[in-house]
Each structure stands twice: as structure tokens, then as C-alpha cells.
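Weekly structure sync, notes
Attendees: PL, DS, HV (note-taker this week)

Item 1: PurT/PurK-like preATP-grasp domain-containing protein
DS walked through the input record. Source organism listed as Flavobacterium cyanobacteriorum. Sequence as pasted into the shared doc:
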Amino acid sequence: MINNINNNTMNKKILLLGSGELGKEFVIAAKRIGQTIIAVDSYEGAPAMQVADGFEVINVSSI
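Item 1 (cont.): predicted structure, written out as C-alpha cells:
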């Protein structure tokens, strides 16, 4: 079934807002099917940032 998904899925850039442990599992799964992930959180070194293609640290206190 994974091969079928790979053949029919276009490569997308996904911005993941919130990069905790669950986000890390999402990044791993999305990268398996060829997606590019940018992880965003309020602190550097968040779990999903460790496996994402890129990351950004933002100040969420003003949002």
C-alpha cells in the first residue's frame, strides 16, 4: 500500500506548527512518502525539529 501512495503523491512542503513527540512521528511518516517538512516551535531542539528537513523557532507569546 505504501508503494501505491508513493506513486500517486506529489512532493509537498509541509509546515508543521508544534514539534513535539507526536509531530516527530508525523515527520518520520511523511518523509517516508517523500514529503519535505519544516518544523516550527517556540524552542530550538524540539523533537520534530531533530528529524525535519528544516526548522524555525518562533516567539508564540505575541500570537
